[in-house]
Amino acid sequence: MSAPLNNRPETWRDRLVSYAAVTAIATLVWLWASNQTRHVAEANMRLLIVPESPETQAVGPSEAISVRVQFTGSKAAVDHAVDAVNGKTLSVAVGTCGVPSAVGGHELTLADVIEQIPAVESTGAGVRSTQPSFATIAIDRRSKPE
């Protein structure tokens, strides 16, 4: 036979402890969920495309491109992404982050390039849009001086 159930009546203290436990768990779940909901934030940055090897390549334009980036994701991810780029100039070498390394003219989708920058990629935030959306670069081969 099974052991008899405790038939003592529930006291006000038992109920209070139960309500407190349920309230604490619900609060933790709510806090976690609020941090996971979708957030959007913007940041201003400058993107500088640099040659893979300055001795053998030239990249134009040589000035950094001013970009307004809109991030989306959890609040924590978006906050980290904004902190990683806001007000900074980030350099991306040709042949990395989706920037081609072939000689010639190339149109870059800036959202794709910025999303692949390790400092942004590690945050988990996505790039919703950029202003401007595209940038054109030219890659040329330099001849070595003899």
What brief labels describe this structure?
single chain; 146 residues; RNA Polymerase Alpha Subunit, Chain A, domain 2; 4 helices; rod-shaped; three-stranded antiparallel β-sheet; alpha+beta; 32% helix; four-stranded mixed β-sheet
Helix and strand composition category:
alpha+beta
User: How many beta-strand segments?
Assistant: 7
β-sheet strand percentage: 35-45%
Which descriptor suits the 3D outline? rod-shaped
Query: Biggest sheet: strands side by side, in what order?
Result: 4-1-3-6
CATH class: Mainly Beta
What is the helix tally? 4
CATH fold title: RNA Polymerase Alpha Subunit, Chain A, domain 2
Domain module count: 1
Distance between the termini: 98 Å
Average residue pLDDT:
90
Model regions low in confidence, pLDDT < 50 over at least 5 residues: none
What can you see in these coordinates?
The protein has 146 residues and is an alpha+beta fold. It has a single domain (38-141), classed as Beta Complex (RNA Polymerase Alpha Subunit, Chain A, domain 2), CATH 2.170.120.30. Helix content is 32%, strand content 36%. It is built from four helices and seven strands. It has helices at 12-36, 75-85, 110-116, 118-121, and strands at residues 38-50, 57-60, 65-74, 89-93, 104-109, 126-131, 134-141. The strands form two sheets. A four-stranded mixed beta sheet has the order 4-1-3-6. Strands 2-7-5 form a three-stranded antiparallel beta sheet. It is rod-shaped and about 90 Å long. The protein starts with 11 loop residues before the first helix and ends in a 5-residue tail after the last strand.
